[in-house]
Amino acid sequence: MQIKTLLLAACILLGLTGCQEKSSQNLQNTGLLIQDTINDQGWGDKGYKGLLKIQDTYGNEVFYKEKIETKSQVLKAVKEFQKKKVNLVFGHGKIYADIFDQISSDFPKMHFVSFNGKVHGKNVTSIHFNSYGMGFFAGMAAAKMSRTNHLGVIAAQDWQPEIDGFIEGARYQKPKIKVDKNVVHSWSDEQKAISAFRKMEASGADVFYPAGDGFTIPVIEEVKKKALYAVGYVSDQSDLGRATVLTSTVQNVEYVYGFVADKFNEGDLKSGNLQYGFKEKAISLGRFSPQVPASFEKKIKQEIDEYKKSGKLPNGKVMKEHVLEEEQ
Question: Are 259 and 141 within one domain?
C-alpha cells in the first residue's frame, strides 16, 4: 500500500504526465462475429485468417460465428464467448459498431472491435482503413490502361471511400474519362453485380472495379472472358489472371488483427475511432500486371511513397491518416 501511495503522489506531482493507467488485462481468448461467411474469398475470409494469426501468435483459443446480423444474435454470441473466457471480440464489419456501443457496458471485462463505424463506448474501438488513397492510385492505373476512356465501377455500398478515391484518381489521370458507377447495395449479390458489369461493358467500359467481397471474383471471371481489364478488391487477386487484373486494392486485415491483439495484450488498445492507411501497412496495392508499363508502375510507387511522407495525393488533396478520435 505504501508503494502505491508513493506512486500516486508522484503522479500528482508530475501533473499525471506519463502516469496514465493502462489496462492490466492480458489477452485470453478471442471471438469473431461475421455478417456473412468466412468462405467468401474476400472480407470474411480475411477476418478468419486474422483470427488464426492471433491464435498462432498467442496459442489461445479462438471462436467465430457466421451470419450474425442483429442485436439479439450478437448478444447471444457474446454471452457464449463470455463463458469461453473470451475478452477480445471482433465484429467484422460496420454493422457491429452501434450494437457494440449498446451492449459493451454489460461486458466490462471484454473489449469490442469493429470496422468502419463510429463508436463511443469505453471498451469499444472501431478500426477505419484509410482506403480513399488506395482507390485513388488504383483509379490512376485503370484510367492509364483504358483504351476506350470508359471505366465501370461496381460498388457494394454507397459509403465506400475507396470508390470515391478510385473515381477521383481516374479523373486526375485522364480528366475527360467517363466513369459509370452502379451500387449493388450488397456485399455478395453476384447476379446484380454481373448484370451491372454486362450493361457497362455493352456501353463501352473496358476496365472494371468490382468492390464487393462476394462478387469481386465472379465479376473478374466475366471480365477475363471478354479480354478486358479489372482491378481486384480486398485481396491481391493477380492470381485470377495477371493479364486481366491490373492491380488490386488490398486491405491487410490479417496484419491489423495481429496489431490490435498486440495492443490489447500490452494494455495499449485505445477506445474510440482509429484510422490506418498506407503508412501503417493496413492497406496497399497488389502486384501490377505485366500489361501496365514498367515506367508507369514505377511512377505510381513513387507517388505512394510521397503520399506516405506528406499525406498529399498527387492532385494536392490532403488525406488525414492515423487517429481519427481517441477516448480514454
Answer: no
What are the b/e assignments for 125-164, b being 16+ CB within 10 Å?
A: bbbbbbbbbbbbbbbbbbbbbbeebbbbbbbbeeebbbbb
The string of DSSP codes covering 163-191 is HHHHHHHHHHH-TT-EEEEEE-SSSS-HH
Task: Give the total residue count for the chain.
Answer: 328
Furthest CA-CA distance within the chain: 79
Give the number of domains in the chain.
2
Residue 161 belongs to a domain with what CATH number?
Answer: 3.40.50.2300
HEC string of 56-78 equals HHHCCCEEEECCCCCHHHHHHHH
* 63 and 140 together in one domain: no
Judge if 35 and 88 occupy the same domain: yes
The strand pairing partners of 115, in sequence order, are 127
Cell 486474422 -> residue: 50
Q: What residues have CB less than 8 Å from 229, skipping those under 6 apart?
A: 142, 145, 146, 206, 207, 208, 223, 244, 245, 246, 289, 291
Tens digits of per-residue pLDDT, 178-192?
999 999 999 889 999
What range does the domain containing 225 cover?
A: 131-250+284-317
Q: Could you tell me the end-to-end alpha-carbon distance of the chain, in angstroms, rounded to an integer?
A: 26
Q: How far apart are CA 297 and CA 303, in angstroms?
A: 10
Q: Do 108 and 137 lie in a common domain?
A: no
Tell me the per-residue pLDDT of 257-289, one tens digit each, with 9 for 90 and over.
999 999 999 999 999 999 889 988 899 999 999
